[in-house]
Amino acid sequence: MSFDLQALQAPITCILSAPGVDLTTISAKRVRKALIEDPQYATPGLTAEAMKERRIEVNQVISRVFETVSRAAANDELKRRREDDDEDEWDAGDEPVDASEDSGEAQVHTKAITPKKRKGKKTVEESDAELARKLSTQINSRSRRGPSNAAASSPKKAKRKPKKSAKTVDSGDEDDDDGGEVKKKKRGAAKGGFAKEYTLSDPLSTLVGVEKLSRPQVVKKLWEYIHGHELQNPSNKKEIICDDAFRAVFAVDKIDMFRMNKVLGQHLHEE
């Protein structure tokens, strides 16, 4: 039994958007492992063997979702930088008037208004291109892995493991086995975005039937609801037709999967 590639877009979006995920070090291999090994992303027909057979197709889906997520992240970062720059763009002030009593003449010293030089900023397109290149390099590295690739994919040197850093798992496709051993990272993943539970807003709690869940579990519950109530647009599987319960959460009649995942954060509250 094969699996539906379209059904992987939502969990991949969730993985790449999860709190604590660094888009500059995330690899296609890490995403694939999460899809297979994390029960929250269980997809009909998706097994380690099926993933091996359709790895290239899955990588293409990961790449497309990555570009969408990284573009949104780059837009947010650019907006934040612009706001910071606008606050101190102008650094100017007037010195007080110095009136000389002896001469009877008032000498006014004013400081010339000089705008601060803006630091060079990358455009959204440049940021998107840079992030997309990083993921593309990881996905297509395969047999080209070596010390130079390892150095480019990780800002830190690995201790006693020259080809992999403590944070990044290489995405080489030919030598890696998705069903093999998953190496432990220095910082326990159990405390990261996958396991952290949030208190759900009232409308979201009503929709999924529980008050507390992790973000991946919420996404899984939403998709169970979508499939159970046949809310996907038959002509565009990426679009969800909202019923009353969905409309109470997302406040729209139709919503795409990426927008749904983004708005979802407004309904997840930390304790």
UniProtKB/TrEMBL annotation:
Domain DM2 residues, every copy: 193-270
Compositional bias of kind Basic residues: 156-166
Recorded coiled-coil stretches: none
Comp. bias regions, Acidic residues: 84-104
Compositional bias segments (type: Basic and acidic residues): 122-133
Region annotation (Disordered) ranges: 77-190
Annotated PANTHER family: SWI/SNF-RELATED MATRIX-ASSOCIATED ACTIN-DEPENDENT REGULATOR OF CHROMATIN SUBFAMILY D
Protein name according to UniProt: Unplaced genomic scaffold PAXINscaffold_14, whole genome shotgun sequence
